[in-house]
Amino acid sequence: MSTRAKIASAVASTGVLLLGWQGGAYALARLGDDESASVQVQESVSPATSSSSPSPTTSASSGTQSASSGSDASSTGLTDGTWTGSPASERYGTWTVTITVQGGRITDVTGSANSSESRSDQINSRAEPILTSEVLSAQSADVDAVSGATYSSRAYLSSLQSALDQASA
Questions:
Q1: What is the pLDDT of residues 90-100, one digit of tens each?
Q2: Range from 44-58, 84-98, 118-132, 134-148 carrying the lowest mean pLDDT
Q3: For residue 163, what are the contacts with CB-CB under 8 A and spacing of at least 6?
Q4: What is the pLDDT of residues 99-109, one digit of tens each?
């Protein structure tokens, strides 16, 4: 290969790399640069649904309700109260999600992870606020998994679906 061809190849490669880098920086800026400077790509996950229909008075292993169930269900089909989903195990631990429903809408979501290693704790602490925000926005368990936290997302959404099943009228 001639020197001229080598130089042209190097210049072309550098140009492609710069364009890709600028495109990535543009995409990151549009997504709202977070402190870790990583792009939050999400993948679709279908939440697991409970095969049984637990009532508000079920045991802790299949979900509990800690608020009054005397409220009427709204048009969304959710009964007001605080509902705790069944614990959902994943590869590195267990998630339990509690929801608060007021006026037939999910007003609060709290996820609690019991993980077996510190790396899982880091992943869970990053994924939980994203999942909570998405659930509050969607008002359902039909949300995407957090990239890099697929196992945690699936367990979180499974426990969430259990709580939603209990809150359904």
A1: 888 899 999 99
A2: 44-58
A3: 63, 83, 84, 85, 97, 98, 99
A4: 999 999 999 99
CATH class of 42-167: alpha beta
For the chain, state the CA radius of gyration: 22
Structural domain spans, the chain: 1-39, 42-167
3-state DSSP helix/strand/coil percent for the chain, to nearest 5?
40, 20, 35
Percent of the chain with pLDDT over 70: 63
Helix (H) or strand (E) holding 8: helix 3-31
Residue with tokens 């299949």: 62
